Amino acid sequence: MKKYTSPSVLTIAGFDGSGGAGIQADIKTFSALGCFATSVLTALPVQNTQGVRKIYSIPEQAVADQIEAILDDIFPAAIKVGMVHTPQLVDTIVNTLSKYAKIPIVFDPVMVATSGHHLIEEETIATLVQKLFPIADVITPNMDEASILANMQVRTLDDMYIAGEKILNMGCKSILLKGGHQETDMITSLYFDKTGKIYTFETEKFKTNNTHGSGCTLSSAIAAYIAQGKDLHDAVSMGQKYVFEAIKSGKDIEIGKGNGPLNHFFNPQKLIIHEMV
């Protein structure tokens, strides 16, 4: 009898009960792109489309146990890491992953929610840079997060070039610096690859409040395309196209009273199945 397998992607991230961001957005994205989704919960934010009300921590040992349970059974082709809000959690994730063969990692340094709420402790940033940056294949900060990482104001495209170079010199392999907060008709994002070459990606900007979870979705889409065997540049490019279409197709749908979610399932793919050799 023939046996088959499917590319699996693991998200290590926080919770969003309103379904637009966090592991919920990640699972929707992986599934919409034809991958099998697994998840590890790092934190329990109490939030909706209007903002974050409170954050409950998950014990570090519980996070380690979750990672081991998944990797011992359903070894992923790629990992997306999202909300990691304490230094102890960074240590736990890095140390636990170090026990296994290297897996491509997309790290979305979630620091500021769409609503403007800060989601990370100040002392965590240095630990992220020291320990998580070196094992991530690409990090995906937005302009607000780049401001925090580069310790400078990032408001324009020129600022993004300067901040991206600064962040690249902190020890990460590559960066996708997202330009979604630009006050322009076209959004320009910059991808700094491991050689230092810079690629620009331009997309149309829509007038919509439905961007809750767009960063989570983009990093997850990149991880899904890596799991499918795409190289990093193509995964970054295809991930941005997916998010563009998800925002475009969901821009007029009203869900919640605040920043609504994307339409992750605007064109869902069937689960990708490969015959096992």
Walk me through what this model shows.
The chain has 277 residues and is an alpha/beta fold. The protein has eight helices and eleven strands. The protein has helices at 22-32, 60-71, 87-97, 122-132, 143-150, 157-168, 214-227, 232-250, and strands at 4-5, 8-14, 36-48, 51-57, 78-81, 105-107, 138-139, 175-177, 186-192, 198-204, 274-275. A six-stranded mixed β-sheet has the order 4-3-2-5-6-7. Strand 8 (175-177) and strand 9 (186-192) form a beta hairpin. Helix 3 runs parallel beside helix 4. The longest helix has 19 residues, at 232-250. The radius of gyration is 17 Å and the shape is globular. The chain starts with a strand and ends with a strand. The mean pLDDT is 93. Residues 16-263 form the Pyridoxamine kinase/Phosphomethylpyrimidine kinase domain. Keywords: ATP-binding, Kinase, Nucleotide-binding, Transferase. InterPro entries: HMP/HMP-P_kinase_dom (IPR004399), PM/HMP-P_kinase-1 (IPR013749), Ribokinase-like (IPR029056).
Query: Helical amount among residues, as a percent range?
Result: 25-40%
Quaternary = single chain
Number of strands: 11
Mean of residue pLDDT values: 93
- Spatial separation of the terminal alpha carbons: 12 Å
* Biggest sheet statistics: 6 strands, mixed
Radius of gyration: 17 Å
Category from helices, strands and their pairing: alpha/beta
Order of helices and strands: EEHEEHEHEHEHHEEEHHE
Low-confidence stretches: none
Number of alpha- plus pi-helical segments: 8
Keywords: ATP-binding, Kinase, Nucleotide-binding, Transferase
Pathway: Cofactor biosynthesis; thiamine diphosphate biosynthesis
EC number: 2.7.1.49
Domain Pyridoxamine kinase/Phosphomethylpyrimidine kinase: 16-263
